[in-house]
């Protein structure tokens, strides 16, 4: 769920993550128009819709158990790091 920006309060599925840039691409959100030049002679240029990346700090994950957007926290159990929901304390897979 997006918490900031023009797509605020909208939900979507994460298509791709960009960990070096700390961004994600979400299906159906943050759509930008891109002008594409004609490649061959006689062909026309076109305007294409592209999914633009959004900062991960502007997002909240939706807990599968309580179905609410929540912050994610981490616990270390037996030297393994686990993510869990701050609202219902359920671990994510």
Pick out its properties.
93 residues; mainly beta
Instruction: State Rg.
Output: 18 Å
Largest sheet: 3 strands, antiparallel
The stretches of 5 or more residues where confidence is low (pLDDT under 50) are: none
Instruction: Write down the domain tally.
Output: 2
Shape annotation: elongated
Number of DSSP strand runs: 9
Q: What string, H for helix and E for strand, traces the elements in order?
A: EEEEEEEEE
Distance linking N and C termini: 18 Å
Overall mean pLDDT stands at 86
Question: TL;DR of this structure?
Answer:
The protein has strands spanning 14-18, 23-26, 31-36, 46-51, 54-55, 61-62, 69-70, 72-77, 80-85.
How would you describe what is shown here?
With 93 residues, the protein is mainly beta. The protein has two domains: 1-59, no CATH class; 63-93, no CATH class. Helices cover 0% and strands 42% of the residues. It has no helices and nine strands. The chain has strands spanning 14-18, 23-26, 31-36, 46-51, 54-55, 61-62, 69-70, 72-77, 80-85. The chain starts with 13 loop residues before the first strand and ends in an 8-residue tail after the last strand. The mean pLDDT is 86.
């Amino acid at each position: 769920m997006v918490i900031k920006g023009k797509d605020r309060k909208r939900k979507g599925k994460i298509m791709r993550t960009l960990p070096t840039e700390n961004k994600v691409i979400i299906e159906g959100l943050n759509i930008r128009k891109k002008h594409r030049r004609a490649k061959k002679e006689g062909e026309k240029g076109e305007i294409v819709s592209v999914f633009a990346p959004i900062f991960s700090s502007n997002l909240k994950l939706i807990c599968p158990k309580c179905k609410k957007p929540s912050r994610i926290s981490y616990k270390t159990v037996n030297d393994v790091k686990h993510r869990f929901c701050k609202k219902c304390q359920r671990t994510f897979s």
